[in-house]
Amino acid sequence: MRVHCQALPDVLKLLPIHEQAAHSSKVGNALYGRSDADVLASPAGTELEFYWVSTMWQQLLGLSLGISLPWTSSTSSASSTTSTTSTTSTTSTSLTASASAIRPFVPSRAPSQRPSILQQDVKALKGLKKLFGNEKAIYNSPQQRSGVVHTLEGKEDLLFVAPTGSGKTLLYFVPAAIQPEKTVVVIVPLKGLRLDLLHRATVLRLDVRDWSSDGDCNCSLLLVSAEAATSEKFGTTLRRLDANDKLSWLVFEEVHLFLTSAFRAHLKTTLSLRTKTTPLLFVTATLPLHLEQELREATHSNPRVIRLPTTRPNLSYTALLKSTAAAAKTQFGSVINTAMANLEGASRIIIYVMKISDCDDLLTTITNKSKVSLFHSEMTTPDQLASLDKWRTGQTPVMIATCGFGAGFDYPAVRLVIHYGGSSSILNYAQESGRAGRDGQPARCLIISHTQYHLSVPSNLDNPNTFWPLLTSSQCFRAALQHEVDGQGDTCVGLACEPCFRCVEALDQGDLFH
Question: What's the CA angle centered on 461, arms 459 and 463, to 5 degrees?
C-alpha cells in the first residue's frame, strides 16, 4: 500500500513503513504500477481506499500496525453488527467527522459483492490453520497460497512445480482436512515416499489410509502405489468413490517419475479410470520445461501451471572425484566418520548409493555401525518401516539408501547428503540432494566417486551418463542443475551464496564469468 502522506491525518505519517510497504521505488512501481506522479495526482479518497483494503487484509491475516486510528470510534465498532452497506456508510461518516479536510470514500462494491476468490482465500487460510492447529500458521509463498486456493475450488487440473521443502503436499492436505466428507486419492510411485506421507498425515491427524486390496476407502486421504493403482480392484474403488460423489482430486505425486519408462504404463492405465469430472493435480520438484508438453500429451490434460524457481541457496555442493575405487572408498570412510562424530541433536545424514551391494560395502568403512540404518528394495516392508522409524527418531541418525528413499521424503534437519558414485539422472540427483536443509538452514550435498564408477552401474537403471557430464563439466554446478529443471540457472556468484566446487575453482583462478 502506498500512502499520500500530505492528505492523510498526522497519525498515519507516523507509520513505521515505507510508502511502498518496504519496497524500493523501482520495485514498488513494477509491482503496483504506480509512480510518484500517480500518487501526487490521485485524490485523498483513493489513497484512503488503498489503506482500507490493506487494513482488511491485515486483519484477515492476523496482523496489526499497532496504532490507533482516529476514525476507529465506538460508533464504527457498534456498526460492525449491522449489514455491510450500513458498515460502509458509517465508516465514511466517521472518516468525515475525524478528518473533515479529507474527502470520504465509498468502496465501489460492498465486500459481499466482491469476487469469490476472497471467500476462497479465507477458507484456505482457515484450513491451513486447522491442519497445523496453529492460528499463526502462514503460507510459505504466494504460489503455495494460489495452489491451495485452486485445489479448494476444484475446477480445473493443476501442475505445481516447486523446490523441495516448499510445501507442495499442502495442496492436497488442506482439502483433505476441511472437506472430510470427500476423498483425495494420491498415487505415489515410491514406497519410501508413501510411507513418509502416511506418517506425516497421521501426525497432522488426517483421516488417512494406505490402500489395500480390501478396498477400504472410507477416509479423506487415500494413498496408493503406482502399481496398485493399475489393478482392477483399485479401479472399482475409484469408480465407487466417483459414483457417490466422494472423489475430490486425483493426485500424482512426483509426476516426473510417471514420464519415465518404468511408470509411464501406470500413468496411462490409471488415467483411463478417471472420469471427466475429477480434476487432476500433478506435483513435483523436478519437471523440466520441455517435459510439460509431454505431460499434457500423456495425460490428455491442459492444466494450469504454477512454478517456483527450484534453486536452493541454503545448499552447498561439493564433489570429490578420485582416480580409483579404493581411493573413493577410503575418502568416504574419512568423511562419514568425521561427520558422524560431529553430528548433534536432531541432525541427520543420508547416503545415496546406486547399487544395493554398495550399502553393505560402505558400511564396512563406518566405525560406529550401530548408528546406521539401511533402506533398499530387497528389504521387506516391515524392515523398511523399522529402519525408517529408527532413523527418524534418532536411534540411527545415518541412513544408507537407494533411490527409493529419494523423491518427496521429508525430514527438516538433514544436514548432509552424500552421493556415493553419483546418481541415475540429473532429475534424480535434484530430488535426492533436495532432502538436505528442508528447514531452510545451511546443509551440504557431497558427491564422492571415481572416474570409472558410472561404467559399473547396472544397465537397468536410468542412463547414468546424463548425470556424469554434469558432474565433470566446468560450468557452475548449481546453475547447471537449476537450468535442467527451470530452463535457466543462477550461478553461486550471482546468488551470493556459498560457491559450489566449480565456482570455487573459478574464483581461485580469477574467472568469475565461467
Answer: 80
Q: What grid cell was written down for 244?
A: 457417490
- The answer to whether the Cα torsion of 30, 33, 39, 45 is positive or negative is negative
Question: Given this model, what pLDDT does residue 99 score?
Answer: 35
Element (H, E) at 236: helix 232-243
Give the CA dihedral 375, 380, 385, 386, nearest 10 degrees.
-90
Please name the residues in contact with 431: beta carbons below 8 A apart, sequence gap of 6 or more.
164, 254, 285, 286, 406, 407, 408
Question: Tell me, what amino acid is at 108?
Answer: S
Q: Which three three-digit cell numbers place residue 337? A: 566418520
Mean pLDDT of the chain: 76
Provide the pairing of β-strand 208-210 with 183-188: unpaired
Residue (of 191, 209, 187) closest to 278 by Cα position: 187
CA distance 512 to 228: 51
Give the model's pLDDT for residue 348.
95
Q: What is the pLDDT of residue 465?
A: 56
Read off the C-alpha cell for 397: 541418525
Q: Residue 97: how many CB atoms within 10 A of its CB?
A: 13
CB of 267 closer than 8 Å to CB of 256: no
Query: From residue 260, how far is each of 4, 142, 187, 263, 371 by CA, in Å?
Result: 56, 31, 15, 6, 35
355-368 pLDDT tens trace: 888 898 999 999 99
Beta bridge pairs of residue 250:
185, 280
Cβ distance 207 to 219 under 8 Å? Answer: yes
Q: To which H or E segment does residue 241 belong? A: helix 232-243
Q: Can you give the pLDDT at residue 193?
A: 83
What would the pLDDT profile of 448-490 be if each residue is shown by its tens digit? 998 777 666 555 444 445 787 888 788 899 998 888 888 888 8
Q: How confident is the model at residue 407 (pLDDT cuts 50, 70, 90)?
A: low
User: Closest by alpha carbon to 67, among 15, 119, 114, 28?
Assistant: 15
C-alpha cell at 333: 570412510
Catalogue the E-assigned strands of 285-347: 304-307, 315-322
Largest CA distance in the chain: 84
Closest CA to 411 of 200, 219, 162, 230: 200
Task: Name the residue type at position 39.
Answer: V
Confidence of residue 114 (pLDDT cuts 50, 70, 90): very low
Predicted TM-score of the model (pTM): 0.63
Structural contact between residues 337 and 465, judged by C-beta atoms closer than 8 angstroms: no
Q: What is the rounded CA–CA span in Å between residue 47 and residue 405?
A: 54
